[in-house]
Q: What sequence folds into this?
């Protein structure tokens, strides 16, 4: 199966035209032919079956039909992580997209004050597109930042009551039940939270959780947390 | 806190000598001084507190004392994964070490027949050492391969009855309960299992599990599976 991401504006039309990189990738490199079925997604959680109607020299046409499975988790989870080197941010965005995260937001903390670097967000956006097509999802995660610490309340205003932060000083796992439409998971810098930041979080009713005694790198902690919140685990594990 | 890995043979002595790369890293770059406390581990799951007794021009001496926390999961999990490009194998080994895996074994399957490349295992071994010291674990994962498909039974002979394989054709999650001393998790190639391989696994009582409708890259699937088996998840999540 092949999943193709198109603009939301053309997703509602009876036929879409495929050009540029997508054309070259699908119709030159992968040699998709007239009559083949594709899964076409709009990046916002919708998917339709498509059929290749015509392949020309620089573009192809795909007729859009019935809705296809969205392959999106029922629970919408936003990740908030400290700014980090682009290589690690890129790996994190790829894996988080595969797992079905709704957004990855980079945040400055006292112990992780760095910038993301020019062009980083657009590079991370391309990483997310490739990962979404590869894993057959349909909703592209929002990738934003770097945000200041003070922007945290606004960023998570719609996350509802399910707001967790990873904290090695928390007493136990303490996830509680995962219910409702969605939530937010905030990962701290590897040097740990600044005491003022921890106080802010507790005062704003963020729930501290703890993934064990080891010090995980921030991208490892973020993916482990997302896995536990989004994928089916063992009974009593 | 600093964790230092030493040879198991010297771990039992009252004092260890630190030389070479470890010496340069700790006593030159990080400027650790006489009197500071280190956590010294043997790579086999044991840890002791150590105190820096002397720092010379090319070596240092650390006096070993009481046992320290091992930070090892109670459940011993071995990962078996198809051979893959070194960059991805390297990420996988780093993250799996942080999560507390007991071994990473690379396997040839019908749809992933490649070699690992000369020098790969020793590079992966160095990645695991760095990750172990960084996350403050104490047991270095075994890294082996590439193994033939026929070696699978021998490789997992000691894993006991807990043997899972990831399979997109499985009906549901189906982890069952995670009990006993340990187990093995086998990840398939991204192209899926060859029907003969699936039959071999079912005939040998491997349990098929399924992580959702998306197609995860093999290293993502391996880390997600290890997370679900080793870390505390939400109640009823």
A:
């Amino acid at each position: 199966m092949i999943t193709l991401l198109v603009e939301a504006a053309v997703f509602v039309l009876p036929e879409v035209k495929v050009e540029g990189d997508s054309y070259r990738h699908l119709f030159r490199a992968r040699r998709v032919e007239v009559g083949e079925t594709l899964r076409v997604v709009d990046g916002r959680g919708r998917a339709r079956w498509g059929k290749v109607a015509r392949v020309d020299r620089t573009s192809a046409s795909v007729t859009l039909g019935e809705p296809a499975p969205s392959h999106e988790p029922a629970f919408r989870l936003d990740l908030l992580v400290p700014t980090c080197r682009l290589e690690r941010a890129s790996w994190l965005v790829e894996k988080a997209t595969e797992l079905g995260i709704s957004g990855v937001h980079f945040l400055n903390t006292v112990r992780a004050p760095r910038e993301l670097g020019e062009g980083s967000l657009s590079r991370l956006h391309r990483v997310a597109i490739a990962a979404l097509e590869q894993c057959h999802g349909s909703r592209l995660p929002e990738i934003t930042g770097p945000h200041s610490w003070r922007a945290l309340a606004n960023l998570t205003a719609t996350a509802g009551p399910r707001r967790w932060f990873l904290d090695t000083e928390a007493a136990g796992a303490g996830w509680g039940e995962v219910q409702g439409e969605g939530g937010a998971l905030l990962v701290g810098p590897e040097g740990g939270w600044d005491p003022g930041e921890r106080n802010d979080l507790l005062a704003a009713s963020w729930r501290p959780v703890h993934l064990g005694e080891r010090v995980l790198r921030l991208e490892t902690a973020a993916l482990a947390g997302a896995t536990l919140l989004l994928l089916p685990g063992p009974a009593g594990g």
Notes: Residues 76-230 of chain B form a domain with the Alpha/beta knot fold (CATH 3.40.1280.10). Helices of chain B lie at 8-11, 20-29, 86-99, 120-135, 152-155, 195-203, 218-230. The radius of gyration of chain B is 20 Å. The longest strand of chain B covers residues 47-55.
